Sequence to fold (108 residues):
Amino acid sequence: MENELLKELIAFIYAKTFLSTNVSLGLHSRLLEDVGLTGADAVEFMLAYGTSFHVDVTSFNSAEYFDDEGVLFSWSSRKVLTIADLVLGIQTSKLDDSMIQGNGNSKV
Fold:
């Protein structure tokens, strides 16, 4: 069941981003660094994720996890958001900072 959920989520990520399917994704893939989500695209992605997978993202603060659009090099620390975090959000129907921090993630 969890493997099917992961496959569905990864297919969703490819469909909603400009990421090439040649790029391999897994549980530890990071949405900012590995997928390349930033700015308004990241916010739109998170809203679509919430709607598609019935996850409450109303308390999720995108600014803590994603750079603004057009930032080539970020010297500020961002919290890490992985595909594993998104899976946890689907399993619990909620994604917020307390869950992500509880999942062992920290600032880059």
Notes: The mean pLDDT is 87.
